[in-house]
Design brief:
By secondary structure, the protein is mostly helical. 63% of the residues lie in helices and 0% in strands. The protein has 10 helices and no strands. α4 packs parallel to α7, α4 packs across α9 and α7 runs antiparallel to α8. The longest helix is centred in the last third of the chain and has 24 residues.
């Protein structure tokens, strides 16, 4: 149970009120996780700016990273949000479950991405030479690798915010990942 209230627009700074307005205009709502970040005059802006960085990986690949990191970090909030976003990026329900389990049957490149992200997240940044080589050999560049690492870090921040605050999930729940899928 959360001990954090979810601030409303009237509870936050003027700068955060403007961000709330922008979020409502862009996505139709202020997600609870973002609203919770508005307890700080800086955190919400910083997280949104970090999450909107230019990247050499496409939206589908970004959602694969977000889903794999959130699964390893057991963040049900981010799993719910990125299941919806993953579908918007063209992933099917089965593909989303595969990615959460650290693999992808879409193609060898995305399979290497999912496996790499899971390993990096599980090992707190200490990827094996084999995982790095598999990612690069699959067609990702060193530039892509750096952007993947940055995204892993940004997603980990959101995962931690939810783990600490445990605010209510305001997206449809992500389906459970069955034990046989995770192997």
């Amino acid at each position: 149970m959360s001990t954090f209230n979810i601030p409303t627009k009237n509870d936050v700074s003027n700068a955060n009120q403007e961000i709330f307005d922008s979020l409502k205009e862009k996505i139709g709502m202020v997600p609870n996780l973002y609203a919770t970040l508005a307890h700080s005059d800086n955190a919400l802006k910083n997280v949104l700016e970090a999450g909107s960085f230019k990247s050499s990986i496409n939206n589908k690949e970004q959602q694969i990273v977000n889903l794999a990191v959130s699964q390893v970090n057991a963040c049900n909030y981010c799993l719910a949000a990125h299941t919806a976003m993953g579908k918007g990026a063209g992933l099917t329900d089965d593909q989303i479950l595969e990615v959460r389990a650290g693999r992808s049957s879409i193609n060898q490149k995305l399979d290497a991405l999912a496996a790499f992200v899971v390993e990096v997240t599980q090992k707190r940044g200490h990827a094996s030479d084999t995982a790095i080589a598999a990612l690069l050999d699959s067609g990702y560049s060193r530039e892509n690798l750096m952007d993947i690492l940055v995204l892993i870090g940004i997603k980990t921040i959101s995962n931690y915010v939810h783990s600490v605050t445990r605010v209510a999930i305001d997206f449809p729940a992500a389906p459970a990942l069955e034990a046989q899928q995770a192997s």
